Amino acid sequence: MPINLINYSDVKEGEKGIPIGYLCDDSWEMPTQINALDAWLKENKDNIKKGSYVADLGYSPREGALGGGTVLTTEAMKIMVAIGMDLYLSEYPPIENE
């Protein structure tokens, strides 16, 4: 999953949104995902009209993490507000790679 970007602008209530992006195929760590979302927003800000969007980050707590993390920049937040994007934080149990 890790980051699904979905457009709900022209979707009727109860219908699924339209996927517009998918980031961080193999990374379930929030810092990596936030950095990828920040870069994607800056790269695509001029190509997305105002509407109703969701950035759904599916993350798993980092093993051994005792604090720290990452920052969602004010620039990224301004872009999200300008285009009408909500941020969902979906926490999953630790993902074990076999």
Tell me roughly what share of residues is in helical segments.
25-40%
User: Helical element count?
Assistant: 2
Q: How many strands?
A: 4
Major β-sheet annotation = 4 strands, mixed
Q: State mean pLDDT (0 to 100 scale).
A: 90
> What structural class do you assign from the helix and strand content?
alpha+beta
Distance between the termini: 17 Å
C-alpha Rg (nearest Å): 14 Å
**Strand share of the residues?**
25-35%
- Poorly predicted regions are none
- Main-sheet strand order equals 2-1-3-4
H/E series = EEHEHE
Shape: globular
What does this structure look like?
The longest helix is centred in the middle third of the chain and has 15 residues, at 30-44. This protein is α+β, with helices and mostly antiparallel strands and 98 residues long. The model has no long low-confidence stretch (mean pLDDT 90). A four-stranded mixed β-sheet has the order 2-1-3-4. It has helices at residues 30-44, 74-83; strands spanning 3-7, 18-23, 53-59, 85-91. It is built from two helices and four strands; from the N terminus they run ββαβαβ. Helices cover 26% and strands 26% of the residues. The chain is globular and about 40 Å long.
